[in-house]
Automatic annotation (TrEMBL):
<keyword id="KW-0597">Phosphoprotein</keyword>
<dbReference type="InterPro" id="IPR016032">
    <property type="entry name" value="Sig_transdc_resp-reg_C-effctor"/>
</dbReference>
<dbReference type="Pfam" id="PF00196">
    <property type="entry name" value="GerE"/>
</dbReference>
<keyword id="KW-0805">Transcription regulation</keyword>
<dbReference type="InterPro" id="IPR000792">
    <property type="entry name" value="Tscrpt_reg_LuxR_C"/>
</dbReference>
<dbReference type="GO" id="GO:0003677">
    <property type="term" value="F:DNA binding"/>
</dbReference>
<dbReference type="GO" id="GO:0000160">
    <property type="term" value="P:phosphorelay signal transduction system"/>
</dbReference>
<dbReference type="GO" id="GO:0006355">
    <property type="term" value="P:regulation of DNA-templated transcription"/>
</dbReference>
<dbReference type="Pfam" id="PF00072">
    <property type="entry name" value="Response_reg"/>
</dbReference>
<feature type="modified residue" description="4-aspartylphosphate">
    <location>
        <position position="55"/>
    </location>
</feature>
<protein>
    <submittedName>
        <fullName>Response regulator transcription factor FixJ</fullName>
    </submittedName>
</protein>
<dbReference type="InterPro" id="IPR011006">
    <property type="entry name" value="CheY-like_superfamily"/>
</dbReference>
<dbReference type="InterPro" id="IPR001789">
    <property type="entry name" value="Sig_transdc_resp-reg_receiver"/>
</dbReference>
<feature type="domain" description="HTH luxR-type">
    <location>
        <begin position="136"/>
        <end position="201"/>
    </location>
</feature>
<dbReference type="InterPro" id="IPR036388">
    <property type="entry name" value="WH-like_DNA-bd_sf"/>
</dbReference>
<feature type="domain" description="Response regulatory">
    <location>
        <begin position="6"/>
        <end position="120"/>
    </location>
</feature>
<keyword id="KW-0902">Two-component regulatory system</keyword>
Length: 205
């Protein structure tokens, strides 16, 4: 059972992948291995949040290009870069592109584990917030134009009767729209609907 989170290892060196798989698995992480950055990027949309550990020098898509692409996608996954001896200028470039840290090979096992734990701990709250924001945005998108109008009126404090008058619809029909809004937004109360609307940016400060 995974207790510490997910780690995605990207390295074209099979021996290195196997070594990291053994180390991280025995340290309590769920480990997924990729032999190139492109296959990781293809899989990224369906992956659970975790820390990426990638070599910087790889054929095809290297670590620098990987960072550029994950940054362009606003990925919340923290990325640790592994570098060879003398690759400090590349490592500095990686940090500028958003890598949370880098390690020079060969490195101590304990240091890598500590860095992964810290990276996950720091990035997880942001990733969770983003996931929640995306989920709420999807709920808002699922509303019909009329349902959205009714939701905006509800969070503005209008009663069913006033909303009905505003849109020249019967109060009974407004009740149906209101029920649909609460169901689609997964809100159990008006106060919860207001909180969701605030998270979705529908209520400005």
């Amino acid at each position: 059972m995974t207790t510490k989170g997910h780690v995605y290892v990207i390295d074209d060196d099979e021996a290195m992948r196997d070594s990291l798989n053994f180390l991280l698995d025995s340290s309590g992480f769920g480990v997924t291995l990729f032999d190139n950055a492109l296959s990781f990027l293809d899989a990224l949309p369906g992956l659970a949040f975790g820390c990426v550990v990638s070599d910087i020098r790889m054929p095809g898509l290297d670590g620098i290009e990987l960072l550029k692409r994950t940054k362009a996608q606003n990925s919340p996954f923290p990325i640790l870069i592994m570098t060879g001896h003398g690759d400090v200028p590349l490592a500095v470039e990686a940090m500028k592109l958003g890598a949370v840290d880098f390690l020079e090979k060969p490195f101590e096992d304990d240091r890598l584990v500590t860095m992964i734990e810290a990276a996950i701990r720091q990035a997880e709250p942001v990733a969770k917030n983003e996931a929640v924001a995306h989920d709420i945005a999807a709920r808002v998108t699922s509303l019909s134009p009329r349902e959205r109008q009714v939701m905006v009126a509800l969070i503005a404090g209008l009663s069913n009767k006033l909303i009905a008058r505003e849109y020249d619809i019967s109060p009974r029909t407004i009740e149906v729209y209101r029920a649909n809004v609460m169901t689609k937004m997964q809100a159990n109360s008006l106060s919860e609907l207001v909180r969701l609307a605030m998270r979705a940016g529908l209520i400005k400060d």
